[in-house]
Design brief:
single chain; about 325 residues; alpha+beta; Beta-Lactamase; Alpha-Beta Plaits; five-stranded mixed β-sheet; elongated; disordered N terminus; binds guanosine-5'-triphosphate; Nucleotide_cyclase; diguanylate cyclase activity; Diguanylate_Cyclase; EC 2.7.7.65
Length: about 325
């Protein structure tokens, strides 16, 4: 028997209460499912994900990001963004965090692993607000393989594969750039064009492979004698260029003479003797790319005509 103090709900009311309980359980189940779905997405993402608080400290992260940087998950929660960001100072990073707006940021960068090595990263940042707190959501994609491929493509597009010298297209681009720079700053610019002597005889006597080895060996000699900032280019078969930013005529003539002596002194076994002839010029006022190259070519021709294995110049006045 029911007491009057504890009445059973009327059947209609009881059904309504059951519906409400069922509905709440259903909604809670859905929310739990959603939470697990988002959690799975976060945890299993192929990209590193890290959420920062306003102070730049790790608020949340996933295993992938910890693996990317070489930390354990426990260690990750002790870190700030400046423990892995490569380049900006903690102050700059704090300023970046303050400035991140609705659009976020997307850029390529590098991050420092626990062992100090660098990893190439494509980074997407966005701002969010959670329980009244500003959070920065960062998705970090490891782009090491892409960067290696890009560097390889750039190398192949700009380098002569036999000698490792800059190829003609890239050398021309650099020459045009340095001419503009010399004009703008009023600095000297030296250019040396050189060509191996009687190279056809070397090929004919020792074969094409021996000729190739000589070209590579000459490039070694050149590499050892140039300064950082000088550019070595392969202009044609056995014809090379040396771009000397900041060098006046005396410097450029000196560089060419050192090279001439270095090549002559080098042992290119089985080839008995290798020499080269050099045309040296310095950019004249109002002179353009074509006129400068032409003058270097004329100077080189003069060296060949005068007996080879020598350095000549042609004045730009
Ligand atoms: N082994 C090799 N030979 C090359 C390459 N490119 C061009 N040559 C050869 O270089 C030779 C150049 O010959 P020439 O232009 O007659 O010049 P040279 O014999 O050096 O004579 P001078 O320049 O007048 O001293 C040719 O036999 C080309 O086949 C290369 O990549 N490898």
């Amino acid at each position: 028997m029911n007491s009057t103090c504890d009445p059973l709900p009327a059947p209609a009311l009881r059904a309504e209460a059951d519906d409400a309980v069922f509905e709440r359980a259903y909604v809670e189940g859905l929310l739990r499912d959603r939470e697990s779905l988002w959690h799975a997405l976060f945890a299993q993402s192929r990209d590193g994900v890290v959420v920062l608080d306003e102070a730049g400290k790790v608020y949340e992260t996933n295993q992938r990001f910890a693996d990317l940087l070489g930390y354990t998950m426990d260690e990750m929660y002790q870190l700030h963004v400046w423990d892995w960001a490569h380049g900006p100072s903690p102050e700059e990073l704090r300023a970046m965090i303050r400035e991140i707006g609705d659009d976020g940021h997307h850029f390529e960068t590098q991050q420092v692993r626990k062992d100090g090595s660098l990893v190439d990263i494509e980074l997407s940042n966005s701002r969010t607000f959670f329980r009244g707190q500003k959070l920065i959501f960062c998705i970090c994609r490891d782009i090491t393989a892409r960067k290696v491929a890009e560097r390889r493509i750039r190398y192949l597009a700009t380098t002569d594969t036999l000698t490792g010298a800059t190829n003609r297209g890239e050398f021309s681009r650099r020459l045009a750039e340095e001419i503009a720079c010399a004009r703008q700053h009023g600095t000297p610019l030296g250019l040396v064009m050189f060509d191996l002597d009687h190279f056809k005889r070397i090929n004919d006597s020792h074969g094409h492979d021996a000729g190739d080895a000589v070209l590579r060996g000459v490039m070694e000699v050149v590499r050892q004698s140039v300064r950082v900032g000088d550019v070595i280019g392969r202009w044609g078969g056995e014809e090379f260029m040396l771009l000397l930013p900041g060098s006046d005529l005396a410097d450029a003539l000196g560089a060419a003479e050192r090279l001439r002596v270095g090549i002559e002194a080098q042992d290119f076994e089985p080839v008995e003797r290798v020499t080269a002839s050099f045309g040296v010029v310095v950019l004249a006022p109002a002179e353009g790319f074509d006129a400068l190259v032409k003058r270097a070519d004329v100077a080189l021709y003069r060296a060949k005509s005068a007996g080879r294995n020598r350095v000549e110049t042609v004045s730009g006045d």
